[in-house]
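Question (not urgent): is this output format expected?
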Amino acid sequence: MIKDTIAAIATAGGPIGIIRLSGARAAEAVDAVFQPAAGGRLSEQPANRLAYGQVCLNGGAPLDCCYAVHMDAPHTNTGEDMAEIQCHGSPAVLLEIMNALYRLGVRQAQAGEFTKRAFVNGKLDLSAAEAVNDLIASRTAEAAQNAAAQMMGAVGERIREVREELLDMVAHFHAVIDYPDEDIDPFLFENAQEVIHRAATTLYRLAESYERGRILHEGVPCVILGRPNTGKSTLLNTLLGRDRAIVTDMPGTTRDVIEETVRLGPVLLRVSDTAGIRNTLDPVEKEGIDRALRTASSASIILAVFDSSQPLNDDDLMVMARAAGRTSIAVVNKCDLPNAADLERIRQQFHSVIEISAKTGEGVEALTGLIPHLLGLDTAAFDGEVITNARQAAALARAASRCEEALFGAQSGMTYDAVIMDAEGAIAALGEITGQNVTDDIVEKVFDNFCVGK
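Got this back:
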């Protein structure tokens, strides 16, 4: 049992500052620094009710006028007694209150310790705890929606359903083996195969959602690639809705990689504008082109930009070669001008071709709608069953693989013991996701990624 009481500033710099406490002495500690305006002590007032009053340290003059509240275990986030002081956000005021709490024996909370205590006290499983951090880090409404659903147990509940069904199957097998004289229904491979097949189907579906989840959580690296003066920088500015890159008629203006973030529906696109691709003897421009090609090699999607008002040349063919075999869109720019490019050849090289005018905005909406579609996120449901966590995805893949091995064993006439051993391996891997079968090192690593105060 955790016995010490912890405290931390739970807010970033701003007009309001909140200090959270958790532990058996939370209300007692606040009583020592906070005086309710109505008299008495905070701990004597009803739980979960804000009290207005003053912070007075060491019996001195009031330091701040603020609110405080205490909450009784087990009906709190951590499962322990908790309290909060909600004061003005002055760093000096917050520091003085924290120092007073330290003198009372309250300890500074470690990173993620409030959520860790919630996990230890059974208020949420490990997958839900990890979702708390994902929610804090979310940069789109869809990412927040998915994380919130996971925080409320969407992944954990699905994992528990699969795990319980496998456990029931394994327990039935052991009961038949260990108690042959008891009146227990026989263990049938046909029934076991149904259970294992259902489990494998669910687990593979969850594991395969990780690629979409990674995109949802981290964003998509996207590079704008093309020869000079095709309108790459104008396209970046159009996507951003503001002037970020310098636009001139002079070739080679863009020398370095410019990266910006653009939201397209559920997709956070990390767009890199790059130097125009061409053969050049200028060492500075050549370095910019090398950087452009390196950026393109690691991008998830390439926007290959062509100038429809000019015939294709060797530099355009170089761009085509770089985009070949990659997730890419041919962006045929300057459709507001008379066409001179070989559009048929471009269509032969690219599955997706969009004609736009980055200058007038024509066709840009079609382009921004196509990108989520190519990434499989245009119709995705973000109901918490899109996995965004690499640790969970790896455990799901292991569990699904063990189920597949168990199913193969059952279908190919392997012994019951061998099949059950694989099923037990799947159960163990699933326990890693929810925290039922996980080492202390993994738990520590999970919560080390949190901020202090959460």
